[in-house]
Design brief:
This protein is rod-shaped. The chain is mostly helical. Helix 1 packs antiparallel against helix 2. The chain has one domain. The model has no long low-confidence stretch (mean pLDDT 90). The two termini are 22 Å apart.
Length: 119
């Protein structure tokens, strides 16, 4: 690959790298939001336990406990999906950075060869 082709590929990879970095940041924000929702659900569950079955009718208590537990499970499942996406993007990012390093070495080599040819 010539100097121009290498440089064009390098520019394209830099764009891909920035895109992947933004996706990883977005996933980190999603994870934080899911953690916040989980905390709220745990607080609801705690309040329900504190009220107890004696304070509120049993069917209302059970309905609310089951709803909270179901929501917590949905959040847990979604967290696993988000974590898998994060791993995928991080792996792509590492591969892109490795290719960028290789292209930079190739570009440096081509530039040195050009100077030697004209020196």
């Amino acid at each position: 690959m010539g100097v121009v082709g290498t440089h064009i590929r390098q520019l394209a990879l830099v764009g891909i790298k920035y895109d992947l970095e933004l996706k990883v940041q977005d996933i980190m924000l999603q994870k934080q939001s899911l953690m916040n929702v989980t905390t709220c659900l745990e607080e609801q569950e705690e309040r329900l336990f504190l009220l107890g079955k004696d304070e509120i009718p049993k069917h209302i208590y059970l309905t609310n406990i089951n709803r909270v537990r179901c929501e917590k499970q949905k959040i847990k499942d979604w967290e696993a999906i988000v974590e898998q996406r994060k791993i995928t993007y991080e792996n792509r990012l590492k591969a892109t950075e490795t290719e960028l390093q290789g292209l930079q070495k190739l570009l440096d080599k081509n530039i040195q060869a050009s100077f030697k040819a004209f020196a």
